[in-house]
């Protein structure tokens, strides 16, 4: 026993776990009015983090202001926030990724809270739900956000109350296994649906959302980008829930076929004649399309399940921070 105790006493002490490498990712397009203050805010909140500003073809002095504030500045030529996020997640190596905007609307002081929630609970993503003057000042955006949240919850399941928030912390596993496809502001929708589809561990944290500086303009168009987000939701529903998507189309076509064909059938039963032959042919053709749609849904559902398994396996291959 004495020898065992002596061996344990003399054994080298295991190295303490190394601190997590945190990367703050700031996509920017013409944000010279705010970017320097944003970088300094995140530097004060996260002194050990690497702060990256990805410029997206700015025509002002965004790049110069970001460099002066001490950020690592890189460029993405393909226009659109989704394109920038895709490049950032591909290029930057870290254990934790904190995504925000360069317009001074998100509170940098909340960054440690988001990261602590992510790490302490071993989550894959923590979304900052926006509260405060910034949301009140943009009533159209707030109303659209509520509508999209309801649609997402209905189609993909509950999990988020602010899917369009651009302030979120992600694990390395999530960042490196996320198959980005969007090019614009619909990227946040894609991030949220991907997490819901794979049933990843996520959470939310209320964060103050402020107003932009007076000399800074929003790049988000309520109508244009709202329609793009709706289209993204529809296309992702087709990809993630194909049987329901094509099944709903099939049911609609079947109902149309019955509505067209019912009078023809009734008339045939009563008279033994089919005077409206074109209508009968149309009804039969529509019913064939309905059956075809359901069959397509069954086939594509199997493909979607295989893709989901592949994404899950890719996610599990990556080390947890």
TrEMBL record:
GO molecular function, one term: transferase activity
Domain (Glycosyltransferase 2-like) ranges: 24-175
InterPro entries: Glyco_trans_2-like (IPR001173), Glycosyltransferase_2 (IPR050256), Nucleotide-diphossugar_trans (IPR029044)
Transmembrane region(s): 245-266, 286-304
Pfam families: Glycos_transf_2
Signal sequence segment: none
Listed Gene3D superfamilies: Spore Coat Polysaccharide Biosynthesis Protein SpsA, Chain A (3.90.550.10)
Key words, A-Z: Membrane, Transferase, Transmembrane, Transmembrane helix
Protein known as: Glycosyltransferase
Organism: Hansschlegelia zhihuaiae
């Amino acid at each position: 026993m004495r020898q065992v105790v002596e061996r344990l006493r003399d054994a080298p002490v295991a190295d303490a776990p190394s601190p997590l490498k945190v990367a703050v990712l700031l996509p920017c397009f013409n944000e010279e009015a705010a970017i320097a203050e944003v970088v300094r805010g995140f530097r004060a909140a996260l002194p050990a983090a690497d702060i990256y500003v990805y410029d997206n073809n700015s025509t002002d002095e965004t790049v110069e202001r970001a460099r002066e504030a001490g950020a690592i500045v890189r460029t993405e030529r393909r226009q659109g926030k989704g394109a920038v996020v895709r490049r950032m997640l591909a290029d930057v190596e870290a254990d934790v990724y904190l995504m925000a905007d360069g317009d001074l609307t998100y509170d940098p002081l909340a960054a440690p809270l988001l990261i602590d929630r992510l790490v302490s609970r071993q989550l894959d993503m923590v979304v900052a739900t926006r509260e405060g003057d910034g949301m009140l000042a943009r009533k159209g955006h707030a109303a659209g956000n509520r509508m999209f949240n309801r649609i997402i919850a209905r189609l993909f399941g509950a999990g988020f109350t602010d899917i369009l928030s651009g302030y979120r912390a992600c694990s390395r596993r999530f960042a490196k296994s996320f198959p980005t496809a969007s090019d614009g502001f619909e990227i946040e929708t894609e991030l949220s649906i991907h997490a819901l589809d794979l049933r990843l561990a996520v959470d939310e944290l209320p964060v103050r959302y402020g107003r932009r500086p007076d000399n800074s303009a929003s790049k988000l168009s309520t109508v244009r980008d709202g329609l793009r987000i709706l289209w993204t939701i529809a296309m992702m529903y087709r990809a993630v829930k194909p049987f329901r998507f094509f099944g709903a189309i099939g049911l609609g076509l079947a109902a149309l076929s019955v509505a067209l064909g019912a009078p023809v059938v009734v008339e045939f039963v009563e008279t033994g004649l089919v005077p409206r032959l074109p209508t009968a042919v149309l009804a039969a053709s529509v019913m064939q399309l309905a059956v075809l749609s359901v069959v397509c849904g069954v086939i594509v559902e199997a493909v979607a399940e295989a893709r989901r398994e592949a994404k899950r396996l890719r996610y599990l291959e990556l080390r947890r921070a």
